[in-house]
């Protein structure tokens, strides 16, 4: 990496802005967050309410989770200051994700327990507890179980938060050359994990997934996904040190679309037929990192963006609630439309694609947005502020050593799994 912000022979760019100058607010990343949440919604449409000729495209929406992991690392590093301390940082992260997570786990559990066999009820409750206590993604048999398939990513985020206060200061002290090699190494690690899994569990058209705990763990666990988060950390550290990507937003968007088109053309390959085999994250993570950097650079330069306008920012603010609850809304509608009463039934006996489902999908989308907006306004935001005032107070940074630090900037910049 080289810095376009430095002249030859000049001192290296400071890790933190001089005299504590705040970094610009990155509102566009909030709007971008909504697009990623919508992509995840569409990926679940292809399972619960499939629409003809859309499966191969909508299924790629699951890469929205990869985007959130990359974005999370970027935003947390962008807003990290010398005044941050580990305890208050953990308190702020707890306040951000946990209150709404409880709702996102409890509501679908209460809706599904009445239809669950007695033998399955206890398992569902244990899975719900693992999700609320943020260790679901460490238990292979529970990662894809439970009442909502999205909660595993919160367990990953909890691990990322745990290591972040130790990783970020180290990354911010490295040189641009070091950060460049670190980015390359992280991408190679991601591909190494996938190639190892393909060797240990060869992709087949009809896998049983029996005895494949290693494949599940290697696909969804915090250890398997931390490289995506760290890629975002490295990207933000490089930008803070003065590096500027030569790609504009159009160029970065073009690369993302090219990667997705290539994956679509390979849609019938055995390694793309099931998410656990797919290399979607390996392909998209570096492309998403470049896109996040390009969008951030545009906001830093003061350019206007439709992503930073009111409606998109509002949707981005609601996106965490939307991410947690959209599957529940989709499932409750789909279970009545197709007379399937468990999530497993949808995967074991796939529903047929129908254009009629389009109207049910639009209904689910509208309801999910409405519920998310109400939850954000009357529960998520008040609960977060109450908790942050008690367990997440930020210690003022030392004079001359402050950086981008305002709490509202943290919210405006974006987060994971859908928002910080």
Automatic annotation (TrEMBL):
This is Acyltransferase family protein. Its EC number is 2.3.-.-. Residues 27-375 form the Acyltransferase domain. The chain crosses the membrane at residues 31-49, 56-81, 93-111, 123-144, 150-171, 178-197, 247-267, 273-297, 318-338, 358-379. InterPro entries: Acyl_transf_3_dom, Acyltransferase_3. It is an enzyme of class 2 (transferase). GO terms for molecular function: acyltransferase activity.
């Amino acid at each position: 990496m080289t810095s376009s912000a430095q002249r030859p022979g000049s001192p290296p760019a400071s890790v933190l802005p001089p005299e504590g100058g705040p970094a610009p607010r990155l509102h566009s990343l909030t709007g971008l967050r909504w697009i990623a949440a919508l992509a995840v919604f569409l990926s679940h449409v292809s399972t619960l309410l499939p629409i003809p000729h859309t499966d191969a495209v909508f299924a790629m929406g699951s890469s929205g989770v990869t985007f959130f992991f990359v974005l999370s690392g970027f935003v947390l590093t962008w807003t990290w200051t010398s005044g941050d301390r580990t305890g208050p940082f953990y308190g702020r992260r707890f306040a951000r994700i946990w209150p709404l997570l409880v709702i996102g786990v409890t509501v679908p559990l209460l809706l599904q327990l009445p239809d669950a066999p007695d033998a399955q009820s206890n398992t569902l409750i244990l899975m719900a507890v693992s999700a609320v206590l943020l260790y679901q993604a460490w238990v292979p048999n529970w990662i894809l179980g439970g009442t909502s398939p999205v909660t595993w990513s919160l367990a990953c985020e909890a691990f990322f938060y745990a290591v972040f206060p130790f990783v970020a200061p180290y990354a911010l002290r490295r040189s641009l050359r070091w950060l460049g090699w670190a980015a390359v190494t992280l991408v190679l690690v991601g591909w190494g994990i996938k190639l190892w899994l393909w060797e240990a569990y060869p992709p087949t058209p009809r896998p049983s997934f029996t005895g494949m705990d290693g494949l599940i763990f290697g696909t969804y666990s915090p250890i398997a996904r931390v490289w995506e988060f760290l890629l975002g950390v490295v990207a933000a550290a490089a930008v803070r040190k003065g590096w500027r990507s030569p790609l504009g937003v159009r160029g970065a968007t073009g690369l993302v679309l090219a990667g997705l088109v290539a994956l679509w053309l390979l849609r019938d390959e055995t390694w793309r037929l099931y998410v656990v085999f797919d290399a979607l994250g390996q392909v998209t993570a570096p492309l998403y990192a470049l896109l996040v950097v390009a969008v951030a650079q545009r906001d830093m330069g003061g350019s206007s963006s439709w992503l930073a306008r009111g409606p998109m920012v509002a949707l981005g603010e609601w996106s965490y609630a939307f991410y947690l609850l959209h599957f529940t809304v989709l499932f409750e509608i789909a279970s009545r439309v197709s007379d399937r009463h468990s999530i497993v039934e949808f995967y074991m006996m796939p529903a047929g694609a129908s254009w009629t489902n389009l109207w049910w999908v639009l209904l689910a989308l509208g309801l999910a947005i409405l519920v998310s907006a109400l939850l954000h306004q009357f529960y998520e935001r008040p609960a977060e502020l109450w908790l942050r005032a008690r367990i997440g107070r930020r210690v003022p940074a030392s004079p001359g050593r402050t950086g981008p630090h305002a709490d509202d900037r943290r919210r405006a910049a974006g987060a994971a799994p859908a928002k910080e």
